[in-house]
Structure formats: C-alpha cells, structure tokens
Inverse folding.
C-alpha cells in the first residue's frame, strides 16, 4: 500500500501527483508512440478510431459525468464537426484552421442550444437534446448546397503545412495529438473553478446556486465545451469515414457515445477513455461472435443496438461506477492485500432525500 | 443603518399562505432564532431570504439594500450564506472540494484560463486553499479533508455544510436546524461553534432550531411562529414562557 505524503497545497492541484504516475503514464505514452512501428495497419486504424471515440467521450463526460446533464443528442455535434471540417476543406481552408473552425462552430452551437435547455434536468433534458439531434440530422439532409444532402459529400485528406496526411499512421498521430490536447484541457477544467462548479451543479443545483454559482452560465459553458470536443472528434471522424452521409450520425451513434461514458464510469476522466476502448472493441467482438452464433441470433437485425442497450442496463444495475470503478477496486484489492474488505465500497449509510428544498 | 429586516413578508403556495405578514429585525452581531412547530413556515422564510422562492408580498432589506428581487445566485455575494435542513452537500466530491466551492464567489478566473490552467489560476487556487484550510482548522475537519461526503457520518456532514457556508465569509449566516440529528456531544460542539462564529468571527446568525436548550444557550433574540404567523418575539426566556407559544407546542415538545 502506498502512502502519499502531503508536503504542500501545490501537490493537490498537480496533474501527476507522484513519480509513480509519471512513470506509468510515460510508459503508456511511449507505447502509443512506437505502436505504428510495431503493429499492423489495421490495428493502427482501429486505435485511431478509439482515440476519436475517446475525444468525443471526454466531451460527453464533461456534460453527463461532471455536470449531470444526460445528452441523448451528441451525435449532432459529431455531425456538425464532421460537416464543418469537410466543408471548409472543400473551400480550400488549410486543415488546421478548418478543424479549429469545426471546434469553434460546435462550441457556438453547444452554447446556443443550452439557452432553451438550461432550466431542464434529467429526462426532460435528455428528450430535448434528442430532439435537437433529430433537427440537426434533418438540416444536414436538406441543406444540399453545404452538406450535399442525402447524396453525401466526400472529405479531402488533411494537409498540414504542405504535407499531406494520407497514410494510416499519419492519421493515427493526428488523432493522438488532438486526444492529448483535449485530455489536457479536460483535466485542467476539472481541477479549476469551472469544473468544480460543474460538479456542484451535478450534485445539488439548489446549493450550487446558494454558493453563488450562476446555473445558466455554467450549464452553457459545460455544454459549449462538451460540444466543442465532440465536434473535434467529429472532424476527425469525417476523415476516417472519408465520405459523409447524414445517416452516419443517427440516434445509434448518440446512444453509443452515451454508453461509452456510462460503461466507462460516470464522473471520471479515466471512464471516458476506458469506455472508448470498450465501445471501439465491442463491434469487433460482436462481428467475431456472429460467426459462432446460430444464424437465428447472429443474423438477427438490430443485434448490435440491442446489445448496446443490454450492456448499458447491466452496467447501471451492477456496476454504476463503470469499468473505471471496477479497475479502482481491483487496484485497491492488490494495494491492500490481505486487508481488503468486501464492504470497502459500501456506503456507510444511505440517507433518503425526501424533500429537495429544505 | 438597517442590518437585516423582513418587512411584512407573505408567500402563497396555491391557496395556502405558508408565511403570513411576518416582520422581524436582526441586529448586527447577534444570533436570532426562529422557532415553531413542524410546518410553521420556518424553512420557507429561509428560502425566501435566499431567493429560492419569490415573495407574494413584503420586502427583505439587507444592509440598506432591497434584496427582494435579487437573483438567487447573487445573494451570497452580498454576504448571506446558508445551510439546509436536509443537508445539501456535493455528495460525490471530497470535503475539500465542497469547501472550495464555498469560495466560488472569490474565483476570478475566466473559462479559458481555466481550460489551460494558467499560472494566474494556479496562484488563485493556492490562495483559495489557504482560506479553506483556515475553516478546516476552525472546525477541526483535518481528518476528513480528502474523504467523499457520501462516506461521512451524518454529524460530520452537518459540520462540513457549516464549513462550506463559512468559506463564503458571510456577514449573515442562515442555519436551518443545525443540531437536528446530532447526538448530545455533537449538539454541544455545535453550540460552541455557533457561539464562536458570533464572537470570534463576528458573523450574525439567523437560526431555525427545535432544541430549546441550544436555543436558550446561544440566542440573543427569539421569534416564535405558527401557521406562518408571528406568535411571540423577545428574549429566549420571554418567548419560552409566552402562553401562546406554550399552547402551540403543547403535547408536542415537553421542553417548552
Ligand atoms: N414549495 C412548496 N410548495 C407548496 N407548499 C410548500 C412549499 N414549501 C413549503 N410549503 C408548505 O409551507 C408550510 C411550511 O413549510 P416549512 O418547510 O417552511 O415548515 P418548517 O417550519 O420548516 O417545518 P419543519 O420544522 O418541519 O422543518 C408547510 O405546510 C409546507 O407544506
Ligand atoms: Mg424546516
């Protein structure tokens, strides 16, 4: 068991709290950097895809996991980022500016959409965000001059300072770089006053307000940055797809994104990453399993979304802390061996909140 | 100067008048207690002051300022902080985190400086932390600093909530049943703290409390209400011996 001695307040706000973290995250980063030299192209492509999911997951995590606003419409931000990026590239805008604009537009849309949604919570918020996603999908299908409508639109390869990123490992490093940047910003946000305000709103709106937090402003901030990150993921997703059609950004994608943060572990940054790995690998597993299942089940239409739903429900019931929660318990078990008690994670007592306003 | 004044406040919920034409003054540096049977309207008065509810009639004055129409999140900026009857802490966060949110009104960073955690944010965070540590020392919370609220016993949560309110450096503190659910020792500690808050920190207090021992120990002035109306008003002794108050409580609370 490791005991971290506190020497200063500064230690509490550091991102990497002790040398052990620095070492292990360094190893992980190193492994990611040399992966293209070791692994085949297929695996590199799949990892890039997981990075894209992780970027979107971090965006959604800020909104759902940290601010407590369940969005069922985040595919819309993926779509906005993807189409914006593709559109600007077509217009000859350099890639770095194009992806920046894609993020900026998603940020703006996120901020604007919160204005009507800011007084809603829970299921009402979820339904309103779903409606928003449907509207965005319809707009994309009909705004032919920009999006190519149902016919779709092709996406040009990214070019950075005259260097065309046309191979899988180029794209891999592009996604990795953006993931690291988004991860860094998310971690900063969580340890700063804005992130604290989000968490306060999630846990008790009424006392957040009585501590001077302007609920509307912070919900707008949260949704805007969430939209921005998801939009960036969308911009990268556009390159992965290389041809955009509106149905790539349907309800199923929203569900997949939400499943990612729920399964990963709500309210943790690790959760978004774990969830991305899970969601990235799941279709592969399903594809492999299909070959072994009897055709009546394997060829069943809607098998994939059905499984997504079941997995999400099972996690909510049996492991609300998600994969990350499982991981923490696992780690603690070895840290504390043989002192670990089964009840360590049981709450001492549950207090019922009968009336909220008292 | 008027420190705090409620002028003829009334509020309707549907057809029910939960608070009916209540007026009172709180002097700076005193502890003012509101007592009354269950459902009398005490918490509602707090919710009116902290602007969660809109008044139907009347005015609230704080330091010569009419705060009757102030947005709820600005009340604390003026120096009015509160606790809740059923504890409203940020359950999935640590004690430290909760107390830091208590200092939200002193955060001067922009969203973008937060995103990059600029050196200015870092300096501000350390400054906030130092103030929070003062409160931790004041309330002896050192032991719980990094624990999640959801793992804390009830009595400690009450103290954390008091600490969070103190972190805002209020001039006026609203305590809704600070001793409810506490055992005898904890109640005694609470009464010392409330006294210290007044004497050492110079903070005025409006408190709702059922425990008459605590009330008479710490209060300078007591207001008794029932069915949203004022029954009696005076020193703890006067109110406790008032025949109307005894009648309202009869059969409910033998202490009175
Ligand atoms: N939001 C509301 N809507 C409708 N009625 C309400 C609302 N808030 C309070 N009331 C009513 O106002 C009355 C006073 O309630 P209040 O919570 O202020 O009582 P209290 O004096 O704090 O009682 P207790 O000692 O039980 O805490 C009650 O009859 C309650 O039902
Ligand atoms: Mg009450």
């Amino acid at each position: 068991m490791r005991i971290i001695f506190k020497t200063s307040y500064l230690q509490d706000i550091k991102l990497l709290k002790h040398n052990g973290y620095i070492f292990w995250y360094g190893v992980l980063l190193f492994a990611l950097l040399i992966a293209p030299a070791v692994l085949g192209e297929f695996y590199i492509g799949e990892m890039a895809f997981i990075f894209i999911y992780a970027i979107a997951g971090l965006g959604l995590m800020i909104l759902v996991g940290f601010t407590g606003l369940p969005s069922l419409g985040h595919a819309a931000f993926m779509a906005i980022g993807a189409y914006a990026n593709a559109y600007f590239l077509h217009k000859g805008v350099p890639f770095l500016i194009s992806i920046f604009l894609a993020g900026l537009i998603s940020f703006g849309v996120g901020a604007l959409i919160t204005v009507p949604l800011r007084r809603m919570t829970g299921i009402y918020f979820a339904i309103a965000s779903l409606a928003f996603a449907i509207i965005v999908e319809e707009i994309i299908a009909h705004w032919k001059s920009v999006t190519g409508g149902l016919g779709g639109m092709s996406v040009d390869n990214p070019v950075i300072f005259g260097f065309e990123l046309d191979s899988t490992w180029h794209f891999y490093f592009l996604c990795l770089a953006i993931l690291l940047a988004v991860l860094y910003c998310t971690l900063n946000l969580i340890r700063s006053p804005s992130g604290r305000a989000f968490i306060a709103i999630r846990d008790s709106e009424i006392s957040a307000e009585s501590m001077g937090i302007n609920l509307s402003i912070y919900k707008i901030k949260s949704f805007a940055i969430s939209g921005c990150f998801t939009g960036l993921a969308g911009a990268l997703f556009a390159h992965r797809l290389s041809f955009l059609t509106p149905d790539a950004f349907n309800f199923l994608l929203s569900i997949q994104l939400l499943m990612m943060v729920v399964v990963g572990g709500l309210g943790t940054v690790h959760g978004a990453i774990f969830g991305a790995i899970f969601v990235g690998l799941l279709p592969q597993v399903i594809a492999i399993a299909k070959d072994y299942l009897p055709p009546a089940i394997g060829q069943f239409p809607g098998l994939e979304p059905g499984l997504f739903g079941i997995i999400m429900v099972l996690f909510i019931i049996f492991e609300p802390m998600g994969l990350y929660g499982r991981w923490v318990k696992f780690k603690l078990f070895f840290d504390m061996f043989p002192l670990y008690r089964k009840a360590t994670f049981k709450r001492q007592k549950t207090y019922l909140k009968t009336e909220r306003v008292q | 100067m008027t420190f705090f004044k409620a002028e003829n406040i009334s509020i309707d919920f549907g057809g029910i008048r939960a608070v009916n034409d209540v007026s009172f003054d709180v002097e700076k540096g005193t502890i003012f207690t509101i007592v009354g049977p269950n459902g009398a309207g005490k918490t509602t008065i707090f919710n009116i002051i902290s602007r969660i509810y809109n008044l139907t009639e009347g005015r609230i004055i704080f330091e010569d300022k009419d705060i009757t129409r102030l947005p709820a999140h600005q009340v604390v900026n003026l120096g009015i902080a509160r606790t809740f009857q059923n504890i409203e802490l940020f359950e999935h966060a640590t004690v430290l985190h909760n107390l830091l949110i208590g200092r939200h009104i002193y955060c001067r960073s922009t969203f973008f400086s937060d995103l990059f955690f600029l050196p200015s944010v870092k300096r501000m965070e350390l400054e906030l932390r130092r103030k929070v540590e003062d409160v931790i020392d004041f309330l002896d919370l050192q032991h719980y600093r990094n624990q999640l609220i959801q793992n804390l016993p009830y009595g400690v949560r009450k103290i954390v909530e008091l600490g969070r309110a103190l972190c805002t450096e209020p001039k006026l503190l609203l305590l809704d049943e600070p001793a409810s659910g506490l055992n005898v020792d904890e109640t005694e500690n609470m009464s010392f703290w409330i006294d210290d808050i007044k004497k050492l920190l110079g903070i005025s207090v409006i408190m709702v409390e059922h425990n008459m021992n605590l009330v008479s120990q710490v209060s300078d002035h007591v207001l008794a209400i029932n069915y949203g109306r004022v029954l009696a008003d005076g020193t703890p002794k006067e109110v406790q011996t008032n025949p109307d108050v005894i009648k309202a409580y009869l059969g409910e609370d033998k202490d009175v």
Q: What stands out?
A: The pocket of adenosine-5'-triphosphate (ligand 1) is lined by residues A 357-358; B 13, 18, 36, 38-44, 85 (CB under 6 Å).
